[in-house]
Amino acid sequence: MEILSIVLNEITGFLGITQALEILKSGDYAAFKTYDGIASLIYPIIPLLLLLELVVGLVYKKPQIKVYKVNFLIYIFNRFVGRFIAIAMVTFCIGVFSSYALFKTSNTWYWFIYAYIVWELGHFVYHYLGHKVRLFWCLHSTHHAPEDMNLSVTHAHFFLEAPYADTIRTTVCILLGVQPELLFTIMFIDGTYGAFIHIGENLIKDARFGFLNKIMLTPSHHRVHHARNPLYMDTNFCNLLNIWDKVFKTYQEEEKSVQIEYGITREMDSGNFIDVYFGEVIALVKDVANAPGLINKFRYLIMPPGWSHTGDHKTAKVVRSAYLKNSLGI
């Protein structure tokens, strides 16, 4: 019975209905009007969409079973290995850096807008480094390994990525005056929308969302981000507001003439958990071991993926620049 109880708790936890069930059991239905109550109704949306996406895929015989299988294994693995590390890092950063904040915000609508823009800056920094520093790419590549896009990709993360990401995002926000109350509200909104932008074509074929595609980041933008096409590589690092992509010139819209190819450029078995989860770590270890001299070994850790001590670089910047030069005349 204890095993069944654990399994049931894991299922309700995955579906995001634990908090809503507790409110229903208490009989205090007015609690649904509070922040926690509203959040409890929002949490289940993404898991339910994921299940709907899978069912629609089965109906139309486009289930991407390989992707769902590996991402499910990653979810289970991460539940056991890195369950509490990220929130511990958030708490630690708040405690350490609060006294060094340049100024303090308050819980008003205009400071909320400011805080969200600052959060997006922190997200951009973490995400950009995750693509431009080989060691951080080892943490982030698991998320890019799936060769198709669906909501299960939301759960495809190396267990150390969330602590690394939240350390950077929280530190940037706290130092720039974002109050913890605003920070946690933004993290909830960002986490929910950040999951939604992984929605697959089984549910939404064209995810540009009309005029919204010009003023915010849509699932179409994030599909571009997950593409390995030369035109799309290392673009669209933001999550909801694409302000910083436009500022730092990493913004790229989905082109109808360039069909998205998902995955990473390294040859890999996307149906193999070990290759998806640890493949880039293994590849980095091999490169470091084979590199001549300590300086080259160190460079493999901090230089972008595709950098080579031989000078035959195949970084995203090199590949994309060559594509733009040859195909578009830029």
UniProtKB/TrEMBL annotation:
Residues 113-250 form the Fatty acid hydroxylase domain. InterPro entries: Fatty_acid_hydroxylase, Sterol_desaturase/TMEM195. It is a multi-pass membrane protein. GO terms for biological process: lipid biosynthetic process; membrane lipid metabolic process. Keywords: Lipid metabolism, Membrane, Oxidoreductase, Transmembrane, Transmembrane helix. It is found in: Endomembrane system. GO terms for cellular component: endomembrane system; membrane. It holds the Pfam family FA_hydroxylase. It comes from the Bacteria. The chain crosses the membrane at residues 41-60, 80-103, 109-129. The keyword Transmembrane helix applies. The keyword Oxidoreductase applies. GO terms for molecular function: glyceryl-ether monooxygenase activity; iron ion binding. This is Sterol desaturase/sphingolipid hydroxylase, fatty acid hydroxylase superfamily. It comes from Flagellimonas pacifica.
